Amino acid sequence: MFFEIRRKNGSTQRIQTQETLESKIVLERSAVPADAETVSFHDEAFTAQTGEKGFFLMPSVAFCQETCLTFFREREDAREVFRDNDMPLFARAGKGKALLAVVEGMKLDYELVIGVKGGRYYLYPRFLLETGMYENIVLRYFRLTGEEATPAGMARTYRNVLLKGGEVRPLRERVREQSILAESLMGPQVRVRMGWKPMPPAVLEQDRNDPPAVHVAVTFD
Fold first, then answer.
1. DSSP letter assigned to residue 108
2. Rounded to 5, what percent of the chain is helix, strand, coil?
3. What does the alpha-carbon distance between residue 122 and residue 45 come to, in Å, rounded to a whole number?
4. 126 compared with 170, residue with greater pLDDT
């Protein structure tokens, strides 16, 4: 695994790294030159060959309100970059195991690059240094198996990370300080997806005369 630094003059520099005993990968702020534009992190663990069982997982991203799963199907070479990640994580799963990476340093200034080239899939974070590096780049690995090596298991793992770090607190604790929150426990909001139109739509420019059919998933019956 390595970090690749790209400088404003177009030159690149690789820094080999390894996972610490605390399952973290760290790039010190002092190791990055002042004229660096981006820092990418690459790990063979986040690659796969076409036809392999498993998937890449990315959190909700720009123009998509749902978690994205990319399966390793045969397809033409392609590459996408996602800047707006709702949660600072990404994962690779397959054969009953998963590797979940949580970004803990510079987590507000990175994008995910995903693609396939010559039958080889890849996924990596690229940190954007538009305002410079204000802290170390830190990623933390979680190795999951069995039921935890699923999207739901990854969500549970990340939830526990937030709880242990004090970034979120369950309502049963907060209600002791704010009694008004007890009312929300009696009536949680539930959203039911009633239906949807196909994406991408068959008709790009629609009006009332040529709308695509709506797929009804839940009726009021």
1. T
2. 15, 40, 45
3. 9
4. 126
Tokens of 93: 């799963």
CB contact at 8 A, 122 and 114:
yes
- Average model confidence (pLDDT) across the chain: 90
Number of neighbours of residue 30 by Cβ within 10 angstroms = 8
Contact by Cβ (8 Å): 53, 94:
yes
In this prediction, residue 12 carries a pLDDT of: 95
Higher per-residue confidence, 63 vs 24: 24
The CA-based angle 23-27-32, given to 5 degrees, is: 175
SS3 121: strand
166: tokens are 């004090």
102, containing H or E segment: strand 97-105
Whether pTM exceeds 0.85: no
CA neighbor of 43 nearest in space, from 2, 92, 102, 85 = 2
Region 94-105: mean pLDDT is 95
Over residues 84-113, mean pLDDT: 93
Residues 221 and 219: their CA atoms lie apart, in Å, by 5
The rounded distance, in Å, linking the Cα atoms of 91 and 137 is 18
Q: How many percent of the chain have pLDDT more than 90?
A: 64
- Residue 58 burial (10 A CB sphere; 0-12, 13-18, 19+): buried
